[in-house]
Fold this sequence. Notes:
It contains 4 helices and 5 strands, in the order ββαβαβαβα. By secondary structure, the chain is an alpha/beta fold.
Amino acid sequence: MTHRPDGDSFVVILAGEVDIDSASEIELALSDAGRFGASRVVIDVSQVVFADSTVLHLLLSAARRYELRLVGPLHRSVRRLLDVTGTAARFPVDPDLDTALHR
């Protein structure tokens, strides 16, 4: 995972399997977004092959605090998590990081 400020946005890039074991690192990144005064958080999940409900909870929490955008395409397991939980509509998905940062 990497993260960085980008103008008024904060970018978090996730990859691989993202679950309870990586939750604390993601929480720290989201806290950094607040410290940087970001109004938007862009989370690139295009390289995530698995995400569990812990990650979903973090995304929902971030969506309450920030304008949240995801970068795809979404792996089928991530798409399924959002679809099965009825939360897909809560997360705008952009095709690439540049698009997400300039919306």
